[in-house]
Each structure stands twice: as structure tokens, then as C-alpha cells.
Amino acid sequence: MVVNKADGKIICTSFANGRHHDFRLFKESKLKIDTKVRAVVDTGYIGIQKFHANSVVPIKRSKKKPLSTSDKVFNRRVSSERVLSEHVIGLIKRFKIVLDRYRNRRKRFGLRFNLICGICNFEKAIVSQEV
């Protein structure tokens, strides 16, 4: 899911049958992001720099290599930029289409998911007009 940082609206969605890793889904979708756009992603997208040079990925720790203080500060900065998209993902999960097992026709999943994203975008537009 691609979220606009300025207004919190969902720009693009992608999904697949069964369990797919986020980065694999990104590669299969062949989504082209403009080089001027800064993509802030989570640790599931390690290796995205090969596809999009202007992307930021948090630094992952391992048992043998703990994070330094500067790495922790960097990760905190990245997570503070990603918090808006995480809130949008939480908003989508309230509709239970992603959270639970989808038990309806698989053919209609994309339509329903995009309709829910449209409802979320509409809600964001109404809230922004009230303020």
C-alpha cells in the first residue's frame, strides 16, 4: 500500500492470493516510483535500493551485531516518518478485510479492498475540510 505523506490518502494498493512477502509483492507489482519521491519503508523491504534509489530502510539488528546509538536514532527518525502509513494500515484493518481470513469470493477481494480504501480516503477528506 502506498500512502501520501502530505494528506494520508492511499494512492496505490497491491495484493495477491495466499501469503506473499511484502517485498516480493512489490517486485511482482512492477510499481514505478518517481526518483524524486522518497520512499520510507519497513525492514521487510531490505534490498529496495536496487529498484528505487531514493528509499529509506531502517537498520536491522542481529544477535551478533547490536545497533549503535546512532543507528537507534536513525531508526527512530524513520519510524516517526512511517507512523502515518501505519495509522492508515490500522484504519484498513478495522474493516477486518485484511485482519481476518477472507471467506468471500476471491474474485471480488480486489474490488472490496479498493472500495474500503476509497472510504478511508473519503473520511480523510472530510476530516481535513472540517479542520
- Give the end-to-end Cα distance, rounded to a whole number of Å: 26 Å
Percent range for helical residues? 40-55%
- How many strands appear in the DSSP assignment? 4
Cα Rg: 16 Å
The total domain count is 1
Taking pLDDT < 50 over at least 5 consecutive residues as the criterion, the unreliable ranges are none
> For the residues shown, what is the average pLDDT?
86
Major β-sheet profile? 2 strands, antiparallel
In percent, how much strand structure appears in the residues?
5-15%
Structural class: mainly alpha
The arrangement of helices and strands along the chain is EEHEEHH
Number of helices: 3
What spatial order of strands do you see in the largest sheet? Answer: 1-2
Shape: globular
Quick recap:
With 131 residues, the chain is mostly helical. 42% of the residues lie in helices and 7% in strands. It contains three helices and four strands.
